[in-house]
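User: Sequence recovery, please. Input:
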C-alpha cells in the first residue's frame, strides 16, 4: 500500500467559495477513479504559524496505481483548481510496511 500525502498553503485572498469548490471537487474523485483505496482531506484546525491550510491523505495499491491516478483526467481537473488557489504545495509518497 502506498500513501500519498499533500499539504496546501492557500494564496492570500482565496475565498470560502473557492475552498468549498475544491472540497466538492475532491469529494468526487473516489467515485471516479478506481485506483483510490482511501481518500481523506480537510482544513487545518490548529492554524499555527507552521501549519499548512489544507491536507489530503490518500492510499493506492502501488506506485503504478498512484501514477494512473495522477494522469487521470478527473484528477487533472482538480489539480488545475489546486494550482489556482495555492501558493505552496508539499507532497510525500511512502509505502506502508507490514
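Assistant: Recovered sequence (98 residues):
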Amino acid at each position: 500500500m502506498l500513501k500519498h500525502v499533500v499539504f496546501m498553503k492557500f494564496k492570500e485572498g482565496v475565498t470560502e467559495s473557492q475552498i468549498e469548490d475544491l472540497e466538492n471537487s475532491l469529494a468526487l474523485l473516489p467515485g471516479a477513479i478506481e485506483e483510490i483505496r482511501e481518500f481523506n482531506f480537510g482544513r487545518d484546525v490548529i492554524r499555527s504559524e507552521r501549519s499548512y491550510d489544507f491536507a489530503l491523505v490518500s492510499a493506492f495499491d502501488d506506485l503504478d496505481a498512484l501514477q494512473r491516478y495522477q494522469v487521470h483526467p478527473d484528477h487533472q481537473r482538480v489539480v488545475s483548481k489546486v494550482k489556482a488557489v495555492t501558493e505552496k504545495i508539499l507532497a510525500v509518497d511512502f509505502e506502508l510496511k507490514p
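The chain has three helices and four strands.
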